[in-house]
Predict the structure.
Amino acid sequence: MSRKIFFRWLKGVIIIYCAAGIALYYLQDHILFHPEPFSKNAKYDFTDSCSEINILYDNETNLNIIQFKTKDTPIKGVVLYFHGNRKNISWYAKYAVNFTKNNYEVWMLDYPGFGKSTGKFAELKLYDYALQVYKLARTRFKPANIIIYGKSLGGGIGSQLASVRDCKYLILETPCYSMTSLIAHYLPIYPVKQMLHYHFPNNEYLQNVTAPIIIFHGTDDGVVPYSNASMLKEVLKTNDEFVTIKNASHNNLNDFPIFHQKLDSLMK
């Protein structure tokens, strides 16, 4: 290959690299998050007993929360459930029974742009939105009766909340070590730490969580590799648990008996 041709190819590679990097930077919200809005006047068709409330955070921000009720009494407490990066509460409602059957209410928050929630979607804002839900829960429940649960993306939100507020447990389902490390796994050729608008450093937040931490992760997770999540073991306390579910992927832990057995034991 001649020197001229080599530099022509090199120039092309550099152009493609830069163009792709710029696209990733400006389109990252669309790549990482897949919300599904819902009309504010529409009614959710949930089979479980539930109520809908809204927190007016500011003039442009409305936080929509669905409270799934337990059929039996006495109520043991509440699970603050922070969901993943797609659709809205209707996609995650089927998991509420995992807790309501054990006499825990489940409060699910939709982030701005998801479901009926509106406002600014930003990492620091998400943390504060979660705090508002916690404060609302504290009007009825003591910290010893509040479980913080984070699924996937929600793991970063739940971890941060548990690092600044007391709770009975912090339970994480398929979390990443950090958003930065996860994206770096897929895009090692880019300076993702500088490019990302979102970092969700679970590894840092978990070090400040005093409540017991339980992490569930599948060995066949194709979204958050098991190798990435398992690095969280290094920051866990002696009484924390990392539950490995063999052959489970990112969205099917609910299909495995070991997941329910462990979850039920925590709800007692």
In short: The mean pLDDT is 93. The chain has ten helices and ten strands. The radius of gyration is 20 Å.
